[in-house]
Amino acid sequence: MSFRIRPEDKMLLVRAATHAQTDLTTFVLRNAVQAARSVIAEAERVALSERDSLRVLAALEDPPPPNEKLLAAARTLPTLP
Question: Which of 18, 21, 62, 75 is deepest in the core (most CB within 10 A)?
């Protein structure tokens, strides 16, 4: 990767990398990967209200009977030997 960066931003990153006792590439990569993981984790997290959490738990403990679409989908699955 290559970036076009303003000189003052590069100086800031170099200064921070120096304080972290690492080189600029390692500093930027480490922090970019950490930020990427954080963004992905936040985007892929499902937040339920207390009411919805209770509904999910109730459905897991006492699932409804399968409907025709689910049964039809199950019939298309290969059979196990």
Answer: 18
